[in-house]
Amino acid sequence: MSEQSGPAPRSLTTRELEQLLEDQQFGVLATVKRNGHPAMSTVLYRWSAAEQVIRISTTADRLKARQIRNDPRVALHVRGDNVWSFAVAEGEAQVTDQPEELLRFAGQVDDAAAFLEQQAREQRVIIKIPVSRLYGTALDITPAP
């Protein structure tokens, strides 16, 4: 390593990875196309550390939902506070329209019945990802003064 090269990336701890997922709300979801190539889309997600589950709301007709029904293998890439840190959560996703999953994603709603009726009209579904592998790195660089 030369003097001008910086520090090597370090693996994030489980606690750091979970905190990164908790702190962020957008990520890039990778699904598998029928031809085997990856498809990527930016998504809003919710992370449950207690369950080790990621939830993403979408509509039933979206490509990502159709691809997951065909091949459930997915990965979610989440950028940290700087370009040098990230987390990746991998798992086999399920697409569900179960009311409890829609409510869990939404959080607190004033009128659950009205909310669920609206979700049904929009054909909303939840992509539920039980995380089987979680990893990421950070490059601890201090900016020059």
Describe the structure.
The chain is an alpha+beta fold. It has one domain: Electron Transport, Fmn-binding Protein, Chain A (Pnp Oxidase, Chain A, Roll). It has 4 helices and 8 strands. It has helices at about 15-25, 65-70, 100-105, 110-120, and strands spanning about 10, 25-30, 40-50, 55-60, 75-80, 85-90, 95, 125-140. Strands 2-3-4-8-6-5 form a 6-stranded antiparallel barrel, surrounded by 4 helices. Strand 2 and strand 3 form a beta hairpin. It is globular, with a radius of gyration of 18 Å. The two termini are about 25 Å apart. About 25% of the residues are buried. The model has no long low-confidence stretch (mean pLDDT about 90). Pfam families: PNPOx_N. This is PPOX class probable F420-dependent enzyme. It comes from Nonomuraea endophytica. Keywords: Oxidoreductase. GO terms for molecular function: coenzyme F420 binding; oxidoreductase activity, acting on the CH-CH group of donors.
What does the secondary structure layout of this molecule look like, with pairings?
Layout: E1 10-11, H1 14-23, E2 26-32, E3 38-48, E4 53-59, H2 63-70, E5 73-79, E6 85-92, E7 94-96, H3 99-106, H4 112-121, E8 124-138
Antiparallel strand pairs: 1-8, 2-3, 2-5, 3-4, 4-8, 5-6, 6-8, 7-8
Protein name: PPOX class probable F420-dependent enzyme
InterPro entries: F420-binding_dom_put, F420H2_bilvrd_red/Heme_oxyg, Pyridox_Oxase_N, Split_barrel_FMN-bd
Domain Pyridoxamine 5'-phosphate oxidase N-terminal: 14-135
